[in-house]
Amino acid sequence: MTKDLLGLKGLAADQITEILDAAVEMKKIISQGAKKMPHLLGKSVVTLFYENSTRTRVSFENAAKFMSANCSSISVATSSVQKGETLIDTGQNLDALLTDVIIIRHPVAGAPQLLAKNVHAAVINAGDGANEHPTQALLDMYTMRERFGRIDGLKVAICGDIKFSRVARSNIWGLTRLGASVTVCAPKTLLPLGIEKMGVRVESDPERAVDGADVVMGLRIQTERQKGGMFPSIAEYAEFFGVDSAVMQKAAPHALVMHPGPVNRGIEMTSAVIDAPNSVILDQVTNGVAVRMAVLFLLTRK
Ligand code: CP
User: Fold this and answer.
1) Band of the pLDDT at 232, cuts 50, 70, 90?
2) Which stretches of 196-287 are assigned E, i.e. beta strand?
3) Is the CB of 284 under 6 A from ligand 1?
4) What φ, ψ does residue 244 adopt, rounded to 5°?
């Protein structure tokens, strides 16, 4: 591992596999009910979130605590960021507070890279703008590999707001590097220009996109990053681009339903799809703890 985990774009297949393999061992431990291991004893971990989160933040904090780290959480709304402190100054003060790992979520793409260049602590990107969310894609790949025993050769359809999704980008980098075929599906207004150059197939019809897919992943519309006007109405988006039970009929019979959360029921996916027996959305959340334990362990081991 390098000093930081900033994205999957720059990781080789064997580096991704190393993390997934370590997560298998972590999952074995937590599956036995163990919630206090010594792997991070004496280490200090800080979560620094400039955007809202439920899953990622709690998952990182539980992962750190399960491995005996000292874990602090900075809520930007009540921190000295509100008094005008810069990101670099905040990071260097966390260094001065003897922090070993800073986990950052920021609305600006590239913020974790800037922080990583200016601090001694290891930096983990927990989501930067529409750029990357590497641990989400790692837990998604972990969940696929756990179910299918492999990533190579899987057909994965990602349906939803591709343009503003850091989850889509990290999954595309990671899945294609490990040999999966990825199809993305969205209205043209929600597809970034030149997305084909990332090695994906592009569809605007959900039934064609999921045809024969092993995995169907839904993505929320990132209204907080859009200026609006991307489609006429939510109702029309749901009707023409949402994944419902009829769309799922086109996927492989064994297809998994995945979603990084938070879900907006009835928009990108119907409740019938989200709650179906083949949905692994909550397994993804549980696997996120094991994956983040693995990342914290690999970045801090000497
Ligand atoms: N998947 C994900 O990043 O969820 P949160 O925004 O709740 O962290």
Assistant:
1) confident
2) 201-203, 215-218, 256-258
3) no
4) -120, -175
Query: Ligand 1: does its nearest atom lie under 6 Å from the Cβ of 53?
Result: yes
E strand or H helix at 13: helix 13-31
* pLDDT for the residue 225: 65
- pLDDT per residue as tens digits for the range 169-227: 999 999 999 999 999 999 999 999 999 999 999 999 999 999 999 999 999 987 776 66
pTM recorded for the entire structure: 0.96
Write the DSSP string, 35-97. Answer: ---STTTT-EEEEEESS--SHHHHHHHHHHHHTT-EEEEEEGGGSGGGGT--HHHHHHHHHHT
Q: Is 136 in the pocket of ligand 1 (CB under 6 A)?
A: yes
